Amino acid sequence: MSIFSKIISGEIPAHKVAETNEFLAFLDISPLVEGHVLVIPKVEVDYIFDLEDETYMGLQMFAKIVATGIKKAIPCKKVGVAVIGLEVPHAHIHLIPMNRVDDMNFARPKLTPTQDELADTAKKIVEALRTVTHQ
After folding, report:
1. The predicted structure's pLDDT at residue 30
2. Residues 6 or more apart in contact with residue 51 via CB below 8 angstroms
3. Which residues contact 2 (CB under 8 A, 6 or more apart)?
4. Which residues, other chains included, contact 40 with Cβ-Cβ below 8 Å and sequence gap of 6+?
5. Which of 18, 15, 68, 64 is nearest to 42 (CA)?
6. Residue-level pLDDT at 135
7. What pTM was computed for the model?
8. pLDDT surpassing 80 at residue 5
9. Quick one: how many helices (H) and strands (E) in the chain?
10. What's the maximum distance between 2 C-alpha atoms anywhere in the chain?
11. Which of 76, 64, 77, 68 is CA-nearest to residue 131?
């Protein structure tokens, strides 16, 4: 069972920003920038391109909605999208607020926000999502 499946089951806590029956979005605990969110399917599949077509398309649409909330909540020019998939054997999409290209550089040192800072960021995104979707 991947760490993401443990987050889905509630075994490991996470700062969730959006959830449906099929998908979950939560803050990365070692973000590149404030507002770095991971979007995952609830089905545990390692490689994103091994997802069933319907799940893959749903994940992309869910990510689009979440990115809209991130952009409203976190000052940024755009929300970048990355699929790396090597660090956790569970398909996931990184949504990263960007003001410059280097904001997407996974080789640079990660931030180390406190739990309170993560909770505040999650709250901002959740509030922004309430204005863009009917959750």
Report:
1. 94
2. 41, 43, 45, 59, 91
3. 44, 88, 89, 90
4. 4, 8, 23, 24, 25, 59, 90, 91, 92, 93
5. 18
6. 45
7. 0.94
8. yes
9. 3, 5
10. 37
11. 68
Digit-coded pLDDT (tens) for 83-116: 997 889 999 999 999 999 999 999 999 999 999 9
CA dist., res. 131 & res. 54, Å (int): 26
Query: Among 42-46, 70-74, 95-99, 130-134, which is the least confidently predicted range?
Result: 130-134
Q: Once rounded to an integer, what is the mean pLDDT over residues 26-48? A: 97
The residue among 44, 43, 47, 78 whose CA lies nearest residue 64 is 78
Phi, psi of 85, deg, nearest 5: 75, 15
**Domain 3-132 sits in CATH 3.30.428.10:** yes
pLDDT > 70 fraction of the chain, expressed in percent and rounded: 98
* Catalytic option among 15, 36, 90, 92: 92
Q: Distance (Å, rounded) from C-alpha 79 to C-alpha 129?
A: 14
Q: Which two tokens stand for residue 85?
A: 């998939």
Decide if 92 is catalytic. Answer: yes
